[in-house]
Write a structure and sequence with these properties.
By secondary structure, the protein is an alpha/beta fold. It has 6 helices and 10 strands; from the N terminus they run βαβαβαβαβββαβββα. 28% of the residues lie in helices and 21% in strands.
Length: 216
């Protein structure tokens, strides 16, 4: 089976089209004002309407309040919420109850000990996403989409009772190595398929998805 791919931080119709044409399993929309990939719920709704039923629209939020969760849920036509901040388990459970949608929880990783944080979410999250933790020395770091990778072998031989994805610093050039090092069967990419921060490059999206298909 090919490696499943989520193209995250999509904000234009041409990026959506490239993701769909290349066989992406998920397309992510970012609802976080500090991000260059930020979209409004109405913008996301217009883009999500271009997705076929087999492609899941995922809404990325960061420590979002109920007002944003409600706006995203009511207008953006999502199939999943991605919680990419410091949300505790009870907040994940509350988002699931409030939206009726599955929730993916991002785990920030810099060292082996960070993986233990995943255990807190196994009973409330539907999926985990392991992303690189931004160092304190990085100015204006975002919760994700910084183009940083962590030490992939930290995930080698690890398993969890719910599905998981690999994220952080992936690109068409290194994705195959990352999958080989981690055993990931699903990956998430954002900055690695951009020409400039926040601007997806359809050609890079196509290359990334071509590589994923070759790993089946």
């Amino acid at each position: 089976m090919p490696v499943a791919v989520k193209i995250c931080g999509v904000s234009t119709p041409d990026a959506v089209a490239a993701a769909v044409a290349g066989g992406a399993a998920m397309v992510g929309f970012v609802f976080y004002p500090r991000s260059p990939r930020n979209v409004t719920p109405d913008q996301a709704a217009s883009l999500a309407a271009r997705l076929p039923p087999h492609v899941t629209a995922v809404g990325l939020v960061v420590d979002a309040d109920d007002a944003l969760i409600d706006a995203v849920r009511s207008r953006a036509h999502l199939g999943m919420i991605q919680a990419h901040g410091k949300e505790p388990p009870d907040r994940i459970a509350a988002i699931k109850a409030r939206t009726g949608l599955p929730v993916m929880k991002a785990i920030a990783v810099a060292e082996a000990a960070d993986l233990e944080d995943a255990a807190r979410f196994l009973k409330v999250a539907d999926r985990l996403l392991f992303d690189a933790k931004a160092p304190a020395s990085l100015p204006n770091a975002l919760p994700g989409g910084n183009g940083l990778a962590f030490d992939w072998p930290l995930l080698a031989g690890r398993s969890w009772p719910i599905p998981w994805m690999l994220s952080g610093g992936l690109s068409p050039d290194n994705m195959a190595r990352a999958v080989a090092a981690t055993g990931a069967r699903a990956v998430d990419v954002s900055s690695g398929v951009e020409s400039t921060p926040g601007r997806k490059d359809p050609a890079l999206i196509a290359r990334f998805l071509d590589t994923a298909r070759s790993l089946g």
